[in-house]
Amino acid sequence: MTESPDSLWGRLYRALLHLLPPHLRRTDGPDMVRTFDRLVRDERPGIRRMRRALHGVRGLITVAAMERWDARRYRAPNSNRTRTKNGRTMMDRWIKDLRFALRTLRRAPAFSAGAVLLMAVGIGAVTAVFTLVDHVLLRPLPYPLAERLVTLEDGSFPGPMVRRVDEVEAFELWAAGWSTAATLTGEGDPVRVEQARVTVDFFRLFGGNAVQGRLLAPDDAANADAVVLSEDFWMRQWGGDPGIVGRTLTIDDAPVTVVGVLDRAFSPPSVLVSDDADLWRSVNWADPRNGSHDFHVLEVVGRLRPGATAADARAGVDALVASMGEGSPGDYVDRDGAPWAIPVTALQDVTVRGVRTGLGLLLGAVGLLLAVACTNVAHLFLARGLGRGREMSVRRALGADTRSLARQLTVEALVVGAAGGLLGTALALGGLAVFRSNAPAFLPPGTSVGIDLRILAFAAAISVATALIFGLLPAVRSLRRDPAAGLRGSSRGSSAGRRLGAARSGMLVAEVALSMVLLAGSGLLMRSFLTVRSVDPGLDARGLWTVPLTPTDIEGPEDYVRSMGAVTAAVAALPEVESAAYGLALPFTRTGTSRCCWSRSGLDISEYDGEDPRLMIHPVSQTYFSTLGIELLEGTTWPEAESYAEPVPAVVTASTASELWGSPARAPGRTFSGEDGVWLEVVGVVADHSHFGLDQEMGTSVFVPMEVLPFPISISEVAFRVRGDAPSDLGRRVREAVWDVAPGLPVPTVRSMEEMIAASTATRRFDGVAFTTFGVLALLLAAGGLYGTLLYTVGQRRREMGIRMALGADRRTVEGQVMSGGVMLAAVGVAVGLAGAWFSGRLLESRLWGIAPSDPVALAGAAAMLLAVAALASWLPARRAARTDPVETLKAE
Amino acid sequence: MDPSAHLPLAPRDLLILAVLAEGPSHGYGLIKAVEARSQAGVLLDPANLYRVLRRMRAGGWIAEVDAEGGDARRRTYDITPDGRRLLRAEITRLEQLLGQARPALADGGESS
Q1: How far is CA B106 from CA A463, B93, B95, B101, B109, in A?
Q2: Which of A63, A155, A164, A522 could form a disulfide with A775 if both were Cys (CB 3.0 to 4.6 A apart)?
């Protein structure tokens, strides 16, 4: 639960206060909420907190009922109240019905608990998931005029182009930014910080408040030394020291001045800069990299003028690209030489694109679950109603009119509905808390998720309506029926009974079919998760560790290579380290994106005349392949050297070699022009391996020595292989080794490659687990429905079975008949469900990997599981039927 | 006011009056104090507490007072002289009752 003043429970309590008479809500309401909130927050752990909260909510509901009742009674003598013929008020009668309903429900604990639980599961799941969907997908982004924000997609852009975005007339305001790591020194241990570089209109465009000092202003464009701290970083590093504004800090060995602190409530657009930026500075246009046409890091978001459309912006951007291309031939064109085509898309769409299908799926899954739960509730009420046919007949014979019977059944259904709704709310609150701690990737940072009362009301209304409709059916039936017949025909079943029997069978088939759809979905998602996990990464992850390092003090490319070489050598020199290497990016450090890399097209490739490939260039150190355990298939890697004469040695992957020259064996010796006309020569071929994730193609890739890098970039990742088990103080030992050679270099936590591979499939695992949870719930509900129905049927047919067994029927035969009846129903459900699963599999297609949406293993597995559970659910009542004692049964007649 | 008309008091009312007799308190403080005094695990919820407080105020047993210092939004309650008389009457009644019942245990009542 959150610690914010408006906790989830607090909001629920506040909403429930509306049950109280208005004058009480005004006088005591605020005090009650405050007291409730403090009491709930006092409790830990969660289970005690929930008990306290539920106790408070129950108290409030009871008191509200008593106060309203009192108010009515005191007012009554003066008002025109409606009297019944017995002289009791309507209210009296409802209260009496309520008491009666509570008593009746208490006498049927299995029915009451079952119905309440079913409703709670359905209401809770739908409320929790819809609340998420609403928060993540439907609400506008938290920026001023957010509906007019658009972003330029498909890549990052070089400084010279970004400086001319002003020429796009459809934008009334725009901002660009990128994030980079930097080092803060002189404040205790050196700290690696995330630094956002933004253009000066950034905060005008996105809002945000300063809690100290000010944010960046237009003057700061010329003065890149002004820095704004994030509130979290300010608290963490300086404990919220109010004297921070005006202080001089050392970032990457250069002095900067703190001008303000940014409110932590501000959540930056993640397409532009990192969500956890510690520092905010203006883009440094004096940096030569930002003047280069090759340095693509800036992302752009613009706000459309009123009346302008994304298409207008697109036209403006196209014109800008064309004009840039004229000034700098060879840049601003794609691999075919055509000018860049840059889609302009609403920021909202881009932000939620990754989670939209996932949440859509979840919503579909809980929708199915709610359907199964409601069917089951209907079922329970119907079965109970049938069982009470006799009771209804007796009461009618004794003079009860249909209206009072209907009223009593209504109250019963409402009581069950209210209890289910309350428990469902608790489940939704719990579910949201679990979700927030387990699937942060689904929630944009800074989102606080409160429960959605509208959807809670919606789900509760559906469940209560189900209960009402099916709860009242028996009363409607008893109208049509002669009470005497009801009294006579103890349990032999009338034709009406048979009709309802068909309805029950239909519901069972529907339940099983819905469960089948869910289970098949979970089978598909789980299997695709397992398929991804079983992909051979093409490197040896065991014993491999990584740490991102940000070199400082860099004068130029040579300096960068020298500094990183020394750091890597220091790590390799540790006794437990077998070898170490570094590269611009390691496998699995930037999964799911292809924006990270340096790529090049329009290359001149020897003995190749196919389509111009877009080549990903990976600068890595000499020991990269041996350290990561990537197999060398042909030739060699380059030798250790200070610098490399042209043609510079390069290594390609097997599939790249096959794509360009037909086979790995034919690759060595081939040449192609690399960056800035430098010639490269293939000296070796390595096995294909995963770089962007197990489920991502690596693409056409070439590995070149770090020394070829034409500019220093303040990122690099070190990988090292540990002998045997990693010591528990590995992080500390690595840190000390690095500080021996680079005292100012921050060393973040070391992570194992195995952990990073697991993290790269977390979303798939989440998909699978979520669907499986709902699928298993649906399976249990369907099995419960089947079990209940058969048990009920067996109870109804006791007499018939007794007679048959008395006439010599075999126990086995009776058992078999009951069981096959249940399994047959389930089989029909499975068949219907298979058709549904085939359809829903196509909806899931974009989330699947390596298996078809109609994967037979997943579908057959789900069907087998359902049938097995159905068989078990039928066998238990069947055994009971077979145990019928013929003599006992007949004696009872 | 004749205290005997309101006797016996419900245990919860007795505890609330007893807590207030020691000094003014607000809703949260009352709940904490009452829960600490009654057997472990017994919870008092805000809605019921404020209902009891409304009734006691209407009966003139307690009154709302200005909170010293603290939070002006939070209302504080104190016991009135009538409330104190009522509390004393109830405690006297309970003590007499105990005095009559206790001898039963003294004469080997435990041997049965």
Answers
A1: 60, 21, 17, 10, 6
A2: A522
pLDDT at A886: 74
CATH number of the domain where residue B19 is located: 1.10.10.10
Answer for the pair A779, A849: CB distance below 8 angstroms, yes or no: no
Which domain does B67 fall in, by range? 9-106
Instruction: Please report the residues numbered 30 through 69 in chain A whose beta carbons come closer than 8 angstroms to any beta carbon of chain B.
Output: 30-32, 34-36, 38-39, 51-52, 55-56, 58-60, 62-64, 66-67
Chains A and B form CB pairs within 8 A to the count of 54
Helix locations, A549-647, DSSP H: 557-572, 624-628
CB neighbour burial string for A829-844, b if at least 16 within 10 angstroms, e if fewer: bbebbbebbeebbeeb
Quick one: what percent of chain A has pLDDT higher than 70?
A: 87
Give percent of chain A above pLDDT 90.
13
Of B43, B46, B73, the CB nearest to A32: B46
Note the pLDDT tens digit of each residue in A417-434: 888 888 888 888 888 877
Per the domain annotation, does B35 fall within a domain?
A: yes
Contact between A35 and B49 using a beta-carbon 8 Å cutoff: yes
Give the nearest chain A residue to B53 (CA atoms). Answer: A28
Give the C-alpha separation, A185 to A182, whole Å. 10
Flag whether B28 is in a domain: yes
Cα(A411)–Cα(A856) distance, integer angstroms: 48
Q: Is the peptide bond before B8 cis (omega within 30 degrees of 0)?
A: yes
| Cα gap A133→A776, rounded to integer Å | 22
pLDDT at residue A330, as a whole number: 72
In the chain, the amino acid numbered A234 is W
Count up the domains in chain B and report the number.
Answer: 1
Distance from CA of A47 to the nearest CA of B (A): 14
- Using alpha carbons only, how large is chain B's radius of gyration in Å? 17
- A889 to chain B nearest CA, in Å? 48
Of the candidates A688, A696, A675, A446, the one whose C-alpha atom is nearest the C-alpha of residue A589 is A696
Which residue in B50, B53, B64, B73 has the most chain A C-beta atoms within 10 A of its own C-beta, making it the best mutation to test that interface? B50
